[in-house]
Amino acid sequence: MDPSLTAEQDEIRRTLRELLHKRSGPHDLRAALDTPAGHDPALWVTLADHLGLPGLALPEAYGGVGCPVTDLALACEETGRALTPSPLLATCVLAAPLLLALGTDAQRASLLPRIASGDLTATLAVPAPALATALALTGGNDGDWAGGGRAGGVQARRLHGAWTLYGEAAQVLDGHSAGLLLVAAHTGGFVRSRTLLFLVPGDAEGLVRVRQTALDATRPQARIQLRHVKAELLGHDEGQDVPAALSRVGDRAAAVLACEAVGAADRALERTVEYVGQREQFGRVIGSFQAVQHRLADVYVQLQAARSAAYYAAWATGRDLGEKVGGLVLAQALQALRTAAGEAIQLHGGIGFTWEHEAHLYFKRAAGDELLFGPAHRLRAHAADEARLFRRPRTEVAV
């Protein structure tokens, strides 16, 4: 792995940082959160038309740019710095890779060019709180997380050659505004139980979508209800290994999320350093106190270690090296973000403890991501299980 960035990658970061500095400042951010979509549609059009962000990691055959996952991760690091709410994560990190991996030629040709152009947004809908489970980040995803019982989850039934979905999913990222839903549903009964993915247009008859109040308002979420909604099976047949595809997408998503968390932690630390260099106490700036310097130095070390790991994970997942490192790296990045946000609140003193201060947006992002994608200790525990680090030694039996 070459740790240096290419000229194109530097240009992506620079251009995106300048744009978000102008269009996604604290005031713009809070205004966007109050819109029905939960993000600024005009900014999304700019990101799509001027920067080609939605198609950054999609193949050129489908209207994309054809860049590696690393470039998308670097872009998400910048959106993480500004906490910019946008359909980028749900559409390009969760939904598009599943369409590319499982979709038929007709489905790819119909949907991916529209995603690459920014005209179509999409998301993955799974029953709450099973997103981390579905993506195999905190445990195996071969169970009945999609709704194995009669109550809860989403059930799929095939009648006269057509699929119908019934059930409910919550905490669906951008589920209230996405133009396309990839719905994970349970079908086959007890004996032939399996989970499949279905395509549901945002305006489908019988689909009810309500935006939810979330701890982290910069990640808009929705509750969706499917009342005998007609759906299209994603892929050629019912024999596809959907859990395996979700697991691969989960590892890649974790790497991108880690870069996003690193960007947020970097900005939180940057703001704190600025503040302690200006705030005076006992006749001197508080940044000159050794205790404050030590605390910020600890945050900096955690941040740089998390950034290095996140870059490696983005590079590795884009090359299918056979090792799943996304969840472990995400745990490290989320911990760095929580530490940076916590120190920001503490070192901003009285104003830092007010709920309206910007530092709390970063703290909510750290806490909200742990709720959605798994707390750090569970991410690490699953990574250890996958690597079989704590296997019991074989017991020798005397004959």
Written description of the protein model:
- This protein has 399 residues and is an alpha+beta fold.
- It has three domains: 7-120, Orthogonal Bundle (Butyryl-Coa Dehydrogenase, subunit A, domain 1); 123-240, Butyryl-CoA Dehydrogenase, subunit A, domain 2 (Beta Barrel); 243-387, Butyryl-CoA Dehydrogenase, subunit A, domain 3 (Up-down Bundle).
- 49% of the residues lie in helices and 15% in strands.
- The protein is built from 13 helices and nine strands.
- It has helices spanning 7-23, 26-33, 41-49, 69-82, 88-102, 105-117, 131-134, 242-276, 290-317, 326-347, 349-352, 358-373, 376-387, and strands spanning 122-125, 154-159, 162-173, 180-187, 194-201, 207-212, 221-233, 280-281, 284-285.
- Strands 1, 2, 3, 4, 5, 6 and 7 form a seven-stranded mixed beta sheet that branches. A two-stranded antiparallel sheet has the order 8-9.
- A hairpin with an 8-residue loop joins strand 6 and strand 7 (221-233).
- Helix 9 runs antiparallel to helix 10.
- 50% of the residues are buried.
- The model has no long low-confidence stretch (mean pLDDT 91).
